[in-house]
Automatic annotation (TrEMBL):
Annotated signal peptide: none
CDD domains documented for this protein: VOC_like (cd08357)
Domain VOC: 3-129
Keywords carried by this UniProt record: Dioxygenase, Oxidoreductase
UniProt cross-references to Gene3D superfamilies, sorted A to Z: 2,3-Dihydroxybiphenyl 1,2-Dioxygenase, domain 1 (3.10.180.10)
Classification via PANTHER family: PTHR39434, VOC DOMAIN-CONTAINING PROTEIN
GO MF term set: dioxygenase activity
Protein name: Predicted dioxygenase of extradiol dioxygenase family protein
Length: 138
């Protein structure tokens, strides 16, 4: 298993973070206080820290003629895990910034991808690879 990352992000409501990361995304909750919650985010440590207001974000970046939010973070899943999560989110009527689709279909680096925002406006990308050796392929 790769070394887990630790990422701390701002949120404006811990209750909304709990609904999104805990209930919708199915992440296990770890330690918490009145100011933050630790999450097992697909084997990585994500901490949602309570703030009064969110920072102003830069303009999106164009990729595949789509407006990709910057900054963003996420995880790389197996293609089966990616498809299952995408189906779960579609069934839950989750709004997407960029709906699930396959990039580089039939080419080096073929991957599924989708983007969404958490309730605080943090952008997340989820990628799925049928062949994880293609992650850094050129």
């Amino acid at each position: 298993m790769p070394v887990p990352f630790h990422l701390a992000i701002a949120v404006t409501s811990l209750a909304q973070a709990n609904s999104f990361y805990g209930t919708l995304m199915g992440c296990e909750q770890g330690r918490r206080s009145e100011q933050w919650i630790d999450w097992n985010f697909f084997g990585h440590q994500l901490v949602t820290h309570l703030v009064a207001t969110m920072p102003i974000l830069p303009e999106p970046n164009e990729v595949d003629s789509k407006a990709v939010p910057v900054p963003h973070f996420g995880v790389v899943l197996s293609m089966n895990e990616w498809k299952a999560l995408a189906q779960k989110l579609v069934a839950a009527e989750q709004a997407f910034v960029i709906e699930p689709y396959i990039r580089f279909e039939g080419k080096v680096g073929e991957q599924g991808t989708f983007f969404l925002l958490d309730p605080a406006g943090n952008a997340l990308e989820f990628k799925g690879f049928a062949d994880d050796s293609q992650l850094f392929a050129k």
